């Protein structure tokens, strides 16, 4: 019957959560915001590109002087620019309205500034002058190089692939860090989004005075376990919903969004680090969930539980105060403390695991710490709920629960 | 064979406060048992310990021959004093959920719930969120959840709290139906007329111990037995056979000594020249017994008010 009730609890808790309008408003708010940003980005990029193109090919009368000797006749002809004898003549032409713009190319365009004098067309429209001046230089340089390969090399950085070795084994580098670091991202996302719900999951029974009815039909262990599993399922659902616009954006609008063309074939999935990352994520999520559920069982109201949520949130960010050390000296004392202290372990260990500085033995110890603490916290949460959640209007003193467990 | 509910030498201590000391009683299968006591006398604590919500300091608390476990909760109907349900869920979902927790299938739980809602005139509220219902309507839902799956044992803590007289009657009918269907009922209440009407046996809890325990007749006999309600004119004579417990203008209540024949009392009154216009023999009410047992609790307050 206990097993049957676990399924009943999970289905009730899960479906009542996902059938709430509030849940979907909260869950969809994030992807909706992302979608709005994507649309704005696409529109902005299209506008910017067309504006840039228009500016580059903008037609207006140009006079120029060239102390560098860089500007070729062909490049000048391309933009209808004519050479003037001196700087003053060029500026006067603009002032008198006989030419729209005057470009003064200095002797060394690499170190000195190209001066542009032009008829004012407004803040945004004025951009066309510098765009055309830049394009005149680019075209002139390309013509002087005379080789498309050299021109490409001059314009773009070369593609360089670094291969390093740890002993005789090829090291994965950044490509092997990305996948395990995603576990840290998932951990943050889940805790940030679900912390409130974790606390409220037991507070609700208390605030609604359902506790006694529940405790006579259901073992508290079954109830709490069911709630924790439900939170896992809801977290997974939310992660999928959040990921959806990113995936859609990446697959269908990559060009419009100027997303880096990440070549997934170069990503490396080190099985040891992936398994360790997954288990640290699971253990960390379990520990935080059971802790926040215990807080919910001990506190009389959501308001009073709020301060504890703040503390828990701070703990997952604390390791970032020493992120430099985590990267440069992962065996520093403070990093080791954060690695093994249960509430800072998930983020510190996930970061180190991603960067490849958490050894197998260290991973096993961290995972063991997280699961043991999560199990202990689950027991405490169950006891708090069983013996404390009928203290409807006051905080449950931890000492009385522990002494009850002992006696 | 052990009674359905068996409590022996139960003791409950919270810190330095002994709430229950050496309490023993049985609730027999099929009976309606009144568990009475003033506020703070330890009734709810006893029930919570019986149901495993509190861990007893000492003693035996058995249901069906063993300590209660939630796994045995499928045939228990418990209406707690502090009660509530999931307020943001539709009525039918809540009832179905509790039905399933009590071992019913989803379809059976839903069908039972709809049938119950029909009976308590809430058929149209099945899909309404619970907190949109009035307090009385929510109480009906709570009662429905309590009696799902034909409970063998019903424990009702202040069952009529929050009910108007019409719904109180409905509640009593439902309890009577459960009893007829074979349920054992334990009622914790301050409504003495309900106890007199429904209960077979009672226990009066005072300061954590049983002040009185037995059938209603036995308890009434212990606290004054029979009373003569007398309408009269004249002067009531003194007699070793009764004591005058209330004397107003042409009305008095005489508490009779044990075993005395009521006819003898009437004869004494006639002989003393009392003109008797009404002579009714009743037993002392549970209300009066309650006042007698627990009346001293507010003595300090009354003294203070009187300036003594």
UniProtKB/TrEMBL annotation, chain A:
It is found in: Cell membrane. Signal peptide: none annotated. The keyword Transmembrane applies. GO terms for cellular component: plasma membrane. InterPro entries: ABC-2_transporter_component (IPR051449), ABC2_TM (IPR013525). It comes from the Bacteria. Its main location: membrane. This is Sodium transporter. It comes from Arthrobacter psychrochitiniphilus.
């Amino acid at each position: 019957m206990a097993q049957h009730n676990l399924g009943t609890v999970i289905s009730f808790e899960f479906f009542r959560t996902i059938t709430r309008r509030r849940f979907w408003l909260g869950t969809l708010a994030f992807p909706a915001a992302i979608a709005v940003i994507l649309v704005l980005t696409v529109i902005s990029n299209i506008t910017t590109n067309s504006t840039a193109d228009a500016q580059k090919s903008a037609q207006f009368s140009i006079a120029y002087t060239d102390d560098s000797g860089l500007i070729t006749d062909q490049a000048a002809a391309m933009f209808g620019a004519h050479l003037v004898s001196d700087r003053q003549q060029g500026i006067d032409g603009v002032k008198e309205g006989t030419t729209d713009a005057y470009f003064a190319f200095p002797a060394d365009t690499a170190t000195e500034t190209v001066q542009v004098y032009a008829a004012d067309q407004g803040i945004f429209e004025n951009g066309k002058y510098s765009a055309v001046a830049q394009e005149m230089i680019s075209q002139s340089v390309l013509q002087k190089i005379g080789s498309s390969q050299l021109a490409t090399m001059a314009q773009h950085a070369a593609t360089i692939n670094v291969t390093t070795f740890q002993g005789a084994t090829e090291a994965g580098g950044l490509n092997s860090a990305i996948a395990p670091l995603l576990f840290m991202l998932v951990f943050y996302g889940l805790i940030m989004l679900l912390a409130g719900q974790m606390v409220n999951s037991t507070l609700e029974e208390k605030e609604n005075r359902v506790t006694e009815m529940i405790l006579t039909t259901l073992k508290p262990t079954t109830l709490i376990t069911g709630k924790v599993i439900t939170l896992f399922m809801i977290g997974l659902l939310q992660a999928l919903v959040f990921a959806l616009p990113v995936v859609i954006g990446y697959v269908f609008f990559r060009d419009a969004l100027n997303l880096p063309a990440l070549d997934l074939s170069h990503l490396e999935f080190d099985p040891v680090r992936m398994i360790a990352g997954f288990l640290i994520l699971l253990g960390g999520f379990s520990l935080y969930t059971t802790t926040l559920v215990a807080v919910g069982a001990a506190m009389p109201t959501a308001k009073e539980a709020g301060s504890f949520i703040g503390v828990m949130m701070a703990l997952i960010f604390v390791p970032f105060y020493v992120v430099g050390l985590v990267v440069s000296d992962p065996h520093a004392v403070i990093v080791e403390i954060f690695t093994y202290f249960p509430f800072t372990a998930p983020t510190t260990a996930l970061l180190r695991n991603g960067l490849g500085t958490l050894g197998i033995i260290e991973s096993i110890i961290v995972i063991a710490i997280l699961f043991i603490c999560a199990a202990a916290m689950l027991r405490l949460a169950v006891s708090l709920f069983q013996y404390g959640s009928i203290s409807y209007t006051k905080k449950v003193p931890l000492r009385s629960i522990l002494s009850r467990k002992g006696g | 064979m052990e009674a359905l509910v068996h409590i022996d030498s139960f003791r409950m201590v919270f810190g330095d406060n002994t709430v229950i000391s050496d309490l023993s009683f049985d609730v027999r299968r099929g009976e309606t048992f009144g568990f009475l006591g003033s506020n703070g006398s330890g009734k709810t604590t006893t029930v919570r310990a019986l149901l495993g919500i509190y861990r007893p300091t000492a003693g035996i608390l058995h249901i069906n021959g063993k300590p209660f476990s939630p796994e045995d909760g499928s045939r228990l109907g418990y209406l707690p004093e502090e009660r509530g349900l999931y307020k943001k869920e539709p009525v039918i979902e809540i009832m179905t959920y509790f039905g399933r927790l009590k071992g019913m299938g989803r379809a059976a739980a839903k069908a039972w719930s709809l049938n119950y809602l029909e009976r308590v005139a809430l058929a149209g509220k099945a899909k309404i969120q619970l907190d949109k219902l009035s307090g009385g309507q929510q109480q009906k839902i709570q009662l429905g959840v309590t009696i799902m799956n034909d409970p063998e044992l019903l424990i009702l803590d202040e069952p009529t709290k929050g009910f108007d007289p019409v719904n109180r009657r409905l509640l009593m009918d439902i309890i009577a139906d459960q009893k007829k269907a074979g349920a054992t009922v334990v009622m914790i209440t301050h409504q003495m007329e309900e106890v007199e009407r429904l209960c077979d046996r009672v226990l009066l809890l005072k300061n954590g111990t049983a002040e009185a325990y037995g059938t209603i007749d036995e308890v009434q006999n212990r606290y004054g037995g029979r009373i003569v309600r007398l309408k009269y004119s004249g002067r009531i004579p003194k007699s070793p056979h009764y004591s005058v417990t209330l004397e107003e203008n042409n009305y008095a209540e005489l508490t009779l000594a044990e075993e005395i024949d009521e006819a003898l009392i009437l004869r004494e009154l006639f002989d003393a020249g009392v003109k008797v216009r009404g002579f009714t023999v009743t037993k002392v009410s549970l209300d009066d017994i309650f006042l007698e047992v627990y009346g001293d609790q507010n003595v300090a307050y009354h003294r203070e008010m009187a300036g003594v």
